[in-house]
Amino acid sequence: MRQLQPRDNRLIYRLETREAEHFRQLLGHFPFTPPVCASVSRTDSRDEVCEREQLLNESLAEHRLQLRQLARELSGPEHLMELKSCWRLSVTPEQREFLLQVMNDIRVGCWEALGQPEPLPVMRPGLDAREYALISLMHLAGAFEHHLLEAPGEGVEPGCCGT
Amino acid sequence: MTVPDEPMTMPAPGIAAATRPREMLGPVYHVVCWNDPVNLMVYVTHVFRQVFGWDETKARKHMLEVHEAGRSVLVSEGAEKAEFYVHRLQQYRLQATMEPAE
Fold first, then answer.
1. Contacts of A11 (CB under 8 A, 6+ apart)
2. Which of A18, A96, A133, B63 is 20 to 30 A away from residue A126, measured at CA?
3. A58 interfacial to chain B (CB closer than 8 Å)
4. Does A39 contact B97 at a Cβ distance shorter than 8 Å?
5. What global pTM score does this model have?
6. In this complex, is the C-beta atom of A38 within 8 Å of any C-beta atom belonging to chain B?
7. HSE (CB half, 13 Å, CA atoms) of A71?
């Protein structure tokens, strides 16, 4: 996946077929992990903090529902289009922000589901199926984050994603 | 020899908002971002730029502070605004909290 030159205030990415498959799977099945309780403070334990925390968690739950809806839309043909030999993703800068949030939610969610290990776990022999799946998803989502944030490359590939 | 009359103006009563002591405006909170091993450095820098409107240099400086010192105070604000920033940062899944300023 790499970014091409933006056009009409839209960010354009070129994806190989396999990347597009992974991308659709990630978005189509989001969220992979249950929500976690977010903290609003690490040092303040006053009553009003509990109230703030509750509001924060309600707000984040609602935001996650919106992200799920957006993830479905952004993996649809209006945004992700199959071309001759590759795929083309077209999003507004605002939609790119939502995509980043989705990918990072997957990444952080998998890490939390693995028990928040430090350093980050890597593929190694002896992992069970659940660990294998979570680690794969975590790294895959991170790779998409990188690509989404990369600067656009020079030029537009003729006959592929430039149309 | 006479001195020309100086224009007479009375000072405005009260204290201008900009010069009020901070305690009169309510408690101040530090918006803090904490280090974790999972959020990508490039992603954290990007989020700081998006949420606070900072340039690359400032965003990267705070990102590196989080990475090296374990935390960075991003801004200090009243409760409402600090809460807003914490919500925004947590929407991006950064580990952000608001801590009372001493």
1. A3, A90, A91, A92, A93, A96, A152
2. A18
3. no
4. yes
5. 0.86
6. yes
7. 23
Whether B100 contacts chain A with CB within 8 A:
yes
Q: Which residues of A touch B90 (CB under 8 A)?
A: 38, 56, 60
Spatial contact of B75 and B31, defined as CB atoms under 8 Å apart: yes
Q: What amino acid occupies position A72?
A: R
Contact B46 A100 (CB under 8 A): yes
- Please give the full DSSP string across chain A, using - where no structure is assigned: -EE---BTTBEEEEE-HHHHHHHHHHHHT---S---PPPS-SS---HHHHHHHHHHHHHHHHHHHHHHHHHHHHTSTTTEEE-SSSEEEEE-HHHHHHHHHHHHHHHHHHHHHTT--SS-----TT--HHHHHHHHHHHHHHHHHHHHHSPPPSS--TTTTT-
pLDDT of residue A158: 41
Closest partner CB to A105 (pick from B40, B93, B98): B93
For residue A52, list chain B residues with Cβ-Cβ distance below 8 A: 83
In chain B, the N- to C-terminal Cα span, in Å, equals 58
The ipTM of this complex is: 0.91
Rounded to 5 degrees, what angle do the CA atoms B85, B60, A146 make?
A: 90
Q: Is B78 on the interface with A (CB under 8 A)?
A: no
| B37, B48 contact by CB (below 8 A) | no
Which tens digit of pLDDT belongs to each residue from A24-62? 999 998 998 888 899 999 998 888 889 999 999 999 999
For B99, which DSSP code?
A: E
Chain A to chain B Cβ contacts (< 8 Å): 66
